[in-house]
Design brief:
heterodimer; A: 116 residues; mainly beta; 7-stranded mixed sheet; 4-stranded antiparallel sheet; 50% strand; globular; B: 112 residues; 6-stranded mixed sheet; 5-stranded antiparallel sheet
């Protein structure tokens, strides 16, 4: 089945530790996105990538880093510089193109990160 | 003014009721519009794209009003399983790259 997978589903981290969240898709989508969701704050864009080996900061990139070495994979590292990392992290992808219907984003099941 | 705004609710309705949500957007150049459904502690899932002519999928109808810059979602004959948060999303740009701008969501509770 085609889709987006994220792992782990739940992650616990001690303060001061870096942690990497996995996101893999087999939809052959070019663009991938990382969002953070906190209660009452909706989806906030952390980083996005339109093509391999290229990525851009979103609205709240501080304390995060990403890489895009393969089309299928877009891992997110939450560094110790992120002051309030406890949140629900969602990865999404979309088929890149110039027409409006390719704006549709599809989400993975998310990773719930808790900093202890 | 926020780029995309929704009434957070909650909307509490009995089974079988008809309920409507609106979502306003600020960028008149936006081209794509969507409704997503998000269940508690789950990922958002695409419910409907919203086309200029309006579109219907079973009990769900989506409309776009470009003049007043809002989209709407109508749910007829509400089911218990419709209880969820409904997110609207509107296309925008970050530099030359396309992105979606999200509303905070409208919470719906359908009661027996």
């Amino acid at each position: 089945d085609g889709g987006i997978t994220q792992s782990p589903k739940y992650l616990f981290r001690k303060e001061g530790q870096n942690v990497t969240l996995s996101c893999e898709q087999n939809l052959n989508h070019d663009a991938m996105y990382w969002y953070r969701q906190d209660p009452g704050q909706g989806l906030r864009l952390i980083y996005y990538s339109q093509i391999v080996n290229d990525f851009q900061k979103g609205d709240i990139a501080e304390g995060y880093s990403v890489s895009r070495e393969k089309k299928e994979s877009f891992p997110l590292t939450v560094t110790s510089a992120q002051k309030n990392p406890t949140a629900f992290y969602l990865c999404a992808s979309r088929r890149r193109g110039g027409i409006e219907r390719t704006d549709t984003q599809y989400f993975g099941p998310g990773t719930r990160l808790t900093v202890l | 003014r926020k780029e995309v705004e929704q009434d957070p609710g909650p909307f509490n309705v009995p089974e079988g009721a008809t309920v409507a949500f609106n979502c306003t957007y600020s960028n008149s150049a936006s081209q794509s519009f969507f409704w997503y459904r998000q269940d508690c502690r789950k990922e958002p899932k695409l419910l409907m794209s919203v086309y200029s002519s309006g579109n219907e999928d079973g009990r769900f109808t989506a409309q776009l009003n470009r003049a007043s810059q809002y989209i709407s979602l109508l749910i007829r004959d509400s089911k218990l399983s419709d209880s969820a948060t409904y997110l609207c999303a509107v296309s925008g740009y970050a530099g030359n790259n396309r992105k979606l701008i999200w509303g905070l969501g409208t919470s719906l509770a359908v009661n027996p």
